[in-house]
UniProtKB/TrEMBL annotation:
<dbReference type="Pfam" id="PF01661">
    <property type="entry name" value="Macro"/>
</dbReference>
<feature type="domain" description="Macro">
    <location>
        <begin position="1"/>
        <end position="167"/>
    </location>
</feature>
<dbReference type="InterPro" id="IPR002589">
    <property type="entry name" value="Macro_dom"/>
</dbReference>
<dbReference type="InterPro" id="IPR043472">
    <property type="entry name" value="Macro_dom-like"/>
</dbReference>
<protein>
    <submittedName>
        <fullName>O-acetyl-ADP-ribose deacetylase (Regulator of RNase III)</fullName>
    </submittedName>
</protein>
């Protein structure tokens, strides 16, 4: 598996699947989630609503992943995963690792060869970037996925530097 880092916007990535740092409602939010729905158009939200009406009536739990169309994005699928909110009193790193592992598992099921990840949980959910980078890279490296090309798309220079230091 090839791992690459880019600084940029995840909605612009030409890959088979982009991963969304979603919230458990699956009905949109800020950060990556907002950008994906804005750029991807209403088709993604309409599939998310169907998921909520079906198997995910209570929403998508943290650490799990599910795919929809990518609408107008230059990707084939969006894989929605819900990161844990960072906590100083409880170790939730297993859930963060699970986001990466489950997203890759879904990507393998789809037959996606290339996947772009944002730095899950490092925005609104408050996970320290350096620790998030460690968990992301370790988990993806050891997941044993068929995906050939994994790209981490870091929004700013500080996030890029944190991932670069861990790679
Ligand atoms: P979470 O709720 O899981 O913390 P956010 O979407 O708030 O997710 O943020 C996750 C990370 O993605 C943050 O580091 C944020 O700066 C970054 N980010 C925000 N918008 C984009 C984007 N369009 N492309 C890539 N990364 C983004």
């Amino acid at each position: 598996m090839k791992l690459t880092l880019v600084q940029g916007d995840i909605t612009e990535q030409r890959v088979d699947a982009v991963v969304n740092a979603a919230n458990s409602s699956l009905l949109g939010g800020g950060g990556v989630d907002g950008a994906i729905h804005r750029r991807g158009g209403p088709e993604i939200l309409s599939e998310c609503r169907k998921l909520r009406a079906g198997h995910y009536g209570k929403g998508l739990p943290a650490g799990q992943a599910v795919a929809t169309t990518a609408g107008r994005l230059p990707a084939r699928w969006v894989i929605h995963t819900v990161g844990p909110v960072h906590s100083a009193s409880e170790d939730r790193s297993g859930l963060l690792a699970s986001c990466y592992r489950e997203s890759l598992r879904v990507a393998d099921t789809l037959g996606a060869a290339s996947v772009a990840f944002p730095a899950i949980s490092t925005g609104l959910y408050g996970w320290p970037m350096d620790d998030a980078a460690r968990i992301a890279l370790e988990t993806v490296r050891t997941a044993g996925a068929q995906v050939e090309d994994v790209r981490f798309v870091l929004f700013d220079a500080a996030a890029y530097a944190a991932f670069e230091a861990r790679l």
